[in-house]
Design goal:
The complex is a heterodimer of chains A (512) and B (459).
Chain A: H1 5-17, H2 28-52, E1 70-74, E2 78-81, H3 88-107, H4 116-135, H5 139-148, H6 150-160, H7 165-193, H8 201-205, H9 208-211, H10 214-232, H11 241-248, H12 251-276, H13 278-304, H14 309-329, H15 333-364, H16 375-378, H17 380-393, H18 400-414, H19 418-442, H20 450-453, H21 460-478, H22 480-498
Helix pairs in contact in A: 1-2, 1-4, 2-3, 2-4, 3-4, 3-12, 3-15, 3-22, 4-5, 4-6, 4-12, 5-7, 6-7, 7-10, 7-11, 10-12, 10-13, 11-14, 12-14, 12-15, 13-14, 13-19, 14-15, 14-18, 15-17, 15-18, 15-21, 15-22, 17-19, 17-21, 18-19, 18-21
Chain B: H1 2-7, H2 9-24, H3 31-47, H4 55-71, H5 79-101, H6 105-123, H7 130-161, H8 169-172, H9 177-200, H10 212-240, H11 243-266, H12 271-290, H13 295-324, H14 336-339, H15 341-355, H16 361-375, H17 379-404, H18 423-441, H19 444-458
The chains are: A mainly alpha (512), B mainly alpha (459).
Chain lengths: 512, 459
């Protein structure tokens, strides 16, 4: 299917957001309404994409028409295309991005108090960059969006953050730029090795020069991409920027960073690393799985000893991203599907948790866990929401994360990775203990100070935002087969790319 | 004969305009007329530039000069100084064009000397202050050393080849020792005088004449011309098969410039000095890519150069504006982003472009150069340069961070609000934003022009 729909979705937020520049900077309500309206448009549009998306169709759909593809083209010299498209791997992530952004804008109604217009612009620019990464099918275009996404995050943290915001923002950008260098070097080398000197991912997937490099030949390219994506996820030991960034970013910025920015790293594995370099992926999968398990255990352990809720969320994220990496590099059908599904499920849950953290920060002025206790009495609705989200995050059956974790962990046992499976389960238990402890410390018991008793419950806006997320958790938890049916054809193609001699199932389709 | 004359038309027009401005001054013309004459002369020189390999660099030099002139419509100089200032800029541009288009060593040396004289004069324009006199002397002494390199190089070159045409490099590099020494000395002199000295030794002395902005313009266009001249030299070495002899020396020099420029930028507290060192680092990066000896890499480098020069000029202008607002040092920039939103906003965009972050022309330029260099087998140099350039990115982000992410200092007594921009300056701003933002998103036409220029040079 050839269409310009994705262009509208990707550039819609930033182009429409320029309208903010023509509004008065102190017209807070007007700015909010415009930004919210701007963010709703791509969401509605992506819903129509989901409706018309054919899971069993060609690998990539909604491709940019040929007449718009020439971006930087000089015959026989440079061939860089403006090519967007989605498949089962990216469709749900696009939907997640366009769904989360309006929620983030809704939660940002009262804060930040200063330079609100610029803040909304930065948020919408970030949305465009993330959507660009998810939809780009030209590696050069992907690099542009990938690097561009650093700029809004740098400003969001540096300008509207708190505490040691500057050092956190700089740390983030230095880490990310190191990753970018690795990414650029690999991408350019890949182009130089390809048959037609192209960045087109669809062509590269079938390029015999790349496929015939063998594990050793592919390994340099693979690790270049891997480092960049591992920094973004982040995988242990490249994770140190995330807790600081979480601690010092504004609450609303943290939502989008935790929910969407991190997912881009795992998406990169699924889109580029594994299908483009299948031999290297097989060769290095055991080592990467070990790293993923370390991330799970290490993240859960450090989360359990944090005193600041934002840092706790950051380590929880590291742990959960470890599950996704584990699923991807299990290189099994269930593992791959589970990992993609977990990106969506984790995104919804961590979004809820981060929004609650923002609400608590606004009410209490602190996110030290010891500053809370007995919150359920003064804010029962908030408490219930918190409980549900926490239970979802530890994989309670009936809620969304259970389905994806189940797929990931069973894929490990199915393929004989018993030790890794067992250690992963230990990590999950650790996460559960940590999360239950958090519930106990924040929600239960006696109020630690009179200020806790005065904390207001959710207002209507906050309630709707969180209720929507909770409803999705239940819906995705109970109807995960409908989601996996959209993902599976794409992950099956990746699977058959990695294991080409596996008997092929005609139901899943195999054309790249 | 006519063709040969046409080739020097741009230089001739610039020099004639400079002379005209100087003579007309005696007849009580207004400052606006002087400025208009300079602008018209530059535009005419741009229009009459010939369609050859050098035309792109003419456009780059003259385009940067036009943007520089647009910004400085009312420079704050007194009338009896402004005409000299304008004449110096025009002559400097003429010298830069001579450097970039020379196929013979004598005009190359001549062009360098013309630019050097302009730079010395601009550096010590405010001769009543000690700082300005120091700045001038600091330029003169090492400048003479580099002139010595050039002349000695020419002598060796002539001894080895029996000619002063650059195409004689073929003979010089084929194992002939005097010729090879000559080439190395010429390259050393060219880089020292064209790129390093003007930017490395620069002490911005605004003084009461504020001529450091003019100095920056001439330094930037000279650096652009030098890079182009180097690319011509390298091209000759490819023809002669002497590329291997020279590439390691050029690569080492480029690495040192890149490393030194970035590291020195890190320790600067003065914003203009920091920008100057970053410029040296980026010129080093371009030179490193010349060792690819590949037409496409040269094309991508010309593309970067085409966006680099005007952006650098704009950067120095905006640094000057902030200085007028009371902030010449990094620490004095605190909170400027919110106090002077328009000036700071555009300066931030310029800095993002210099840092090479999207969606800016600087990002596209660097990305294209790296891409082509990797394609031609320069993966390790690209990695080195990219890693070292992280320091430069850090410097640019540091300036932005000071403007936007630090609370303003309590003592604001030294700060003043700059005057609103004039109409030509606004046009200059618009042109800069278009160059940075539009080329950052849709660079294809300019890339095509740059690749064609490289292709013409390659034939």
């Amino acid at each position: 299917m050839v269409t310009t729909d994705l262009t509208l979705i990707v550039f819609g937020p930033i182009v429409l957001a320029t309208g903010l520049l023509f509004m008065r900077h102190d017209d807070r309500k007007g700015l909010f309404e415009l930004a919210f309206g701007v963010s709703i448009v791509p969401f509605l549009y992506s819903l129509t994409l989901l409706r018309t998306f054919d899971p069993d169709g060609h690998a990539f759909q909604f491709l940019t028409p040929d007449r718009f593809r020439s971006w930087i083209v000089i015959e026989d010299v440079v061939n860089i295309e403006y090519l967007l498209g989605i498949d089962g791997i990216s469709i749900l992530l696009v939907l997640l991005t366009t769904f989360i952004t309006p929620l983030v804008i809704l939660t940002a109604l009262r804060r930040p108090r200063e330079n609100y217009r610029q803040f909304l612009l930065a948020l919408l620019a970030l949305e465009s960059c993330i959507l660009g990464c998810l939809c780009a099918l030209d590696l050069f275009l992907f690099l542009v969006f990938w690097t561009a996404s650093l700029v809004p995050v740098f400003f969001i943290t540096g300008v509207w953050g708190t505490g040691r915001k500057l050092s956190s923002a700089v740390k983030f950008i230095i880490f990310s730029l190191i990753g970018c260098i690795a990414l650029f070097a690999s991408a350019f080398t890949l182009r130089s090795l390809s048959t037609h000197g192209s960045f087109n991912i669809i062509e590269l997937l079938n390029d015999p020069n790349i496929q015939n490099l063998g594990p050793y030949g592919q390994s340099w390219l693979f690790w270049g991409f891997f480092i960049a994506f591992a920094i973004r996820i982040p995988v242990f030991p490249l994770h140190t920027w995330l807790p600081d960034l979480n601690r010092d970013s504004p609450a609303t910025g943290t939502v989008i960073i935790n929910t969407l920015m991190l997912i881009l790293g795992t998406f990169g594995f699924a889109r580029i690393c594994i299908p483009l370099f299948p031999d290297a992926a097989i060769a290095f999968a055991p080592a990467i799985m070990v790293l993923a398990v370390i991330s799970i255990i290490y993240g859960a352990w450090l989360a359990s000893i944090q005193r600041d809720m934002r840092r706790l969320i950051a380590y929880t994220s590291i742990s959960h991203m470890g599950f996704i990496v584990l699923g991807l590099f299990s290189l099994t059908q269930n593992g791959l599907t589970g990992a993609i599904l977990h990106m969506v499920n984790y995104g919804i849950c961590i979004c809820g948790l981060t929004i609650i953290a923002g609400i608590l920060l606004e009410r209490r002025g602190s996110l030290k866990i010891t500053d809370f206790g007995g919150l359920i009495k003064s804010a029962p609705t908030l408490g219930v929401m918190f409980w549900i989200i926490a239970f979802a995050l530890i994989g309670l059956p009936g809620l969304n994360i259970f389905a994806s974790l189940f797929l990931i962990i069973t894929s490990l046992f199915e393929h004989g990775n018993y030790l890794i499976g067992a250690i992963t389960l230990t990590g999950l238990i650790w996460l559960a203990v940590m999360m239950l402890g958090l519930i106990q410390k924040i929600m239960l018991g006696k109020a630690t100070s009179p200020a806790i008793e005065k904390i207001k419950d959710l207002d209507r806006r906050e309630f709707y935002v969180l209720a929507l997320l909770v409803l999705l958790m239940f819906y995705f938890g109970l109807s995960s087969p409908s989601l996996t049916s959209k993902i599976e054809p794409a992950t099956d193609r990746t699977y058959y790319k990695v294991h080409p001699y596996t008997p092929f199932s005609s139901e899943t389709g195999g054309d790249q | 004969m006519t063709d040969s004359l046409l080739l020097i038309f741009p230089e001739a027009i610039l020099v004639l305009t400079a002379v005209f401005i100087t003579i007309k001054w005696r007849s009580e013309k207004t400052r606006v007329e002087d400025w208009s004459l300079a602008l018209i002369g530059t535009v005419i020189a741009l229009v009459v530039s010939q369609q050859n390999a050098a035309h792109l660099v003419n456009y780059i030099i003259l385009g940067a000069l036009i943007i520089g002139l647009l910004f400085d419509y009312k420079s704050g100089l007194k009338r009896d100084h402004q005409h000299t200032w304008l004449a110096l800029l025009l002559i400097g541009a003429a010298g830069a064009i001579v450097i970039s288009s020379s196929a013979h060593l004598i005009p190359l040396v001549l062009g360098l000397e013309i630019v050097s004289v302009v730079i010395y004069t601009l550096a010590m324009f405010d001769r009543t202050t000690r700082e300005a006199r120091d700045a001038g002397i600091r330029m003169i002494v090492p400048g003479l050393v580099s002139t010595g390199f050039m002349l000695l190089g020419c002598a060796f070159y002539y001894t080895g080849t029996g000619t002063l045409w650059l195409s004689g490099a073929e003979i010089a590099a084929s194992g002939d020792i005097p010729g090879s020494i000559g080439i190395l000395l010429i390259i050393a002199g060219l880089l020292l005088k064209g790129c390093l000295l003007p930017l490395l030794l620069w002490r911005p002395v605004s003084g009461k004449y504020g001529t450091d902005y003019g100095y920056a313009i001439v330094a930037v266009i000279t650096a652009s011309a030098t890079v182009f001249a180097m690319s011509r030299l390298m091209r000759e070495f490819i023809v002669s098969g002497a590329a291997d002899t020279i590439s390691s020396s050029v690569l080492l020099t480029a690495f040192l410039m890149c490393l030194g420029g970035n590291l020195l930028a890190l320790v600067q507290s003065n914003v203009k000095r920091m920008l100057a060192f970053l410029a040296v680092a980026q010129v080093g990066c371009m030179l490193a890519m010349l060792t690819s000896f590949d037409a496409d890499t040269f094309g991508s480098m010309f593309f970067w150069l085409a966006t680099w020069a005007p952006v650098q000029v704009a950067a120095f202008y905006y640094a000057g504006l902030l200085e007028k607002g009371g902030a010449s040092k990094l620490s004095e920039l605190e909170g400027f982003g919110w106090r002077m939103p328009q000036v700071s906003g555009i300066f931030a965009l310029i800095l993002l472009s210099i840092a090479g972050l999207p969606p800016t022309a600087g990002f596209m330029g660097q990305l294209m150069v790296y891409m082509e260099a990797v394609q031609s087998g320069l993966l390790l140099p690209v990695l080195f340069v990219a890693i070292v350039n992280l320091a430069g990115v850090f410097c640019c982000l540091r300036i932005i961070a000071f403007m936007y992410m630090k609370a303003p200092a309590k003592d604001k007594s030294h700060r003043t609000s700059p005057k609103p921009l004039t109409l030509p300056a606004r046009i200059g701003v618009l042109a800069t934003v278009i160059i940075i933002a539009v080329i950052g998103v849709y660079p294809a036409p300019l890339i095509f022009i740059a690749y064609v220029a490289a292709d013409i040079m390659w034939r």
